[in-house]
Amino acid sequence: MLIAKAVCPKCKAGFIVDQKLWNVGTVPLRCIECGHAFLPPGSPKSLSVEEAVNAAVPIRIWKTG
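and the corresponding structure tokens:
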């Protein structure tokens, strides 16, 4: 498993995320400290969600409150 270090832009807490999720770049990360959701800055956006999870069907990410 490859990992990337995320830093919350709101509270500056650092935490670890799966690098494949980071490389998707369109799925918001949620801070483990304050709950703020943000897109990974500097993501290469080189993977689709389907490629990241190795799915043969389309995946839709639902935003919840």
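(Above: one complete record from the training split.) Residues 19-24 form the longest helix (6 residues).
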